[in-house]
Design a protein that fits this description.
about 500 residues; alpha/beta; Rossmann fold; Alpha-Beta Plaits; Arc Repressor Mutant, subunit A; five-stranded parallel beta sheet; five-stranded antiparallel beta sheet; 10 strands; globular
């Protein structure tokens, strides 16, 4: 069976494609749906579908941008583009990405089924040859690739013989640890092995455990909880989950169940953390950093919120966010002032009916606020503060202290400290720390340096101290931040 992901911001299209997939039984099964570019990237990395039907015209990140983002990490995935209009310029952008087909909506049933038929012959030629080599390599391949997809009873019998499995059933467990994951997950595997046959592999920086037995799930979960609690320090935020006990050919369901449960335990806290980080970044940068840079952070903020929350809740969150920006611009919600707010966020946002309307309104409102804050901040910054900010941006990697910067801009340290407080609502050291962490995030995303080199590059001579600072600022150690932004190629 080939797994299909459907990406479209129109619910009728999602329902139509899903109905066709589920009704025709042509060796294709629906793996999931996504309604935005951000949601699509997340689903592609987690579900590893064989086929993705990708809408081009979505708010924020369009379909071709999504494919370009994931292209290298999922080389075996087949992408089919769909759009309401024939656009040769879009086709040209898609050609280097190896797009399989280009469909113009509305797509007829005949065209859809014909596309699937063509796909099947292509995918059958891509079926991997049987794994050969060491037993360890075969076991890793089985855990990281095979059990995430449906396979036949005959194939299961061969796997049972290959790995000396005596039960016809099994259950999949996952463990996520914030730092030094492989070390802790291996110890957990050793403890589980005292009570059960346990096949183990590290996958996407998580511990993956297959217990090939018809076990009592509740008992196994309690044993897993005990192994995690007695192995991993609480400060590393360990999270664990288990699927249901399944027959061999249905182990992919146990994988999906464990992954879904793990995300439920982690997602809300992670989303709120990223939301807070992005809001802080935007409020600090808007009007100072280039508009495209700040708009990129803003787009990431609202895309994730609308993908993660009910539409009404996401609008309420954005109304609160825009209220903060209006206050940053005019001070009308924090002090008495004669200056009128540029907009009324709640009154304007809450009546919005769909994402298209939101995208149009938010872009215009954001640009207006960015321009107003740029004028205010550039015009109101005293010359010594403006010089100090330029100096810090150029010399952030040096061993800087307030007196050094004050001397460079020819004012006293006390005066410069007061300027940071009055105009940026922060301290000198907090501003410098935030700047260094921001630079570190960019270096980690580029994946050209290890964490130690990044620490030195942004002005920290002690990598351990840098890790503490980075974790305090972002909510995660730099090693975890790096792992989440360098997805491993595999079958998850």
């Amino acid at each position: 069976m080939y797994r299909v992901l459907i990406v479209d911001d129109e619910e009728p299209v999602l329902d139509s494609y899903a109905f066709l997939l589920e009704s025709v039984g042509m060796d294709f099964v629906l793996a999931g749906k996504a309604r935005s570019g951000f949601e699509a990237i997340k689903a592609i990395h987690e579900l590893k579908p064989d086929v993705v039907f990708m809408d081009i015209n979505m708010p924020g990140m369009d379909g071709i941008q999504v494919i370009a983002e994931v292209h290298d990490s999922v080389p075996g995935t087949v992408f089919i583009l769909s759009t309401a209009y024939e656009r040769f310029d879009l086709v040209q952008r898609a050609i280097p990405l190896g797009i399989f087909s280009y469909l113009v909506k509305p797509v007829s049933k005949k065209t859809f089924l014909s596309t699937l038929d063509s796909l099947r012959s292509v995918l059958e030629k891509r079926r991997p040859a049987p794994v050969v080599g060491s037993p360890e390599l075969a076991e890793r391949h089985f855990l990281k690739e095979t059990i995430w997809k449906e396979f036949s009873r005959e194939e299961w019998e061969k796997f049972k013989e290959l790995f000396s499995l005596h039960s016809d059933k099994g259950i999949v467990c996952l463990v996520d640890v914030a730092e030094a994951a492989e070390r802790w997950c291996r110890e957990i595997a050793a403890k589980l092995s005292f009570r059960h046959r346990c096949l183990f592999a590290m996958h996407l920086n998580r511990g993956l455990y297959l217990i090939p037995e018809d076990v009592d799930r509740a008992l196994l979960i309690s044993q897993l909880a005990e192994a995690v609690a007695t192995t991993v320090p609480e400060a590393l935020f360990p999270t664990y989950a288990a699927g249901q006990v399944r027959k061999g050919p249905e182990l992919y369901l146990s994988c999906s169940e464990a992954l879904e449960e793990l995300h439920k335990k982690k997602s809300h806290a992670d989303i709120r953390l990223r939301e807070r980080m992005r809001i802080v970044q935007i409020r600090r940068k808007i009007g100072i950093a280039p508009q495209e840079e700040v708009r990129g952070i803003f787009t990431s903020l609202w895309e994730e919120l609308f993908a993660s929350y009910d539409f009404f809740v996401a609008k309420a969150k954005m109304a609160a966010f825009f209220t903060l920006l209006v206050d940053d611009c005019t001070g009308c919600f924090s002090t008495h002032t004669d200056e009128e707010p540029l907009l009324s966020p709640a009154e304007e946002i809450m009546p919005i009916k769909d994402l298209d309307e939101w995208g149009e309104w938010s872009l215009q409102a954001f640009n207006e606020l960015h321009g107003a804050l740029a004028r205010k901040r550039s015009g109101n910054f005293p010359l010594p503060l403006a010089k100090a900010l330029d100096f810090l941006n150029e010399h952030f990697a040096d061993q800087l202290q307030l007196p050094v910067v004050a001397e460079a801009v020819q004012v006293s340290g006390a005066y410069l400290s007061r300027l940071f407080s009055e105009h940026l609502h922060t301290t000198f050291i907090d501003y410098l720390t935030a700047l260094r962490v921001e630079k570190a995030e960019r270096l980690i995303r580029e994946a050209r340096m290890n964490i130690k080199e990044v620490a030195y590059a942004v002005g920290y001579q002690d990598p351990n101290y840098f890790s503490k600072i980075f974790r305090k600022a972002t909510g995660m150690p730099p090693t975890v931040y790096a792992a989440e932004r360098r997805p491993e190629k595999g079958g998850l």
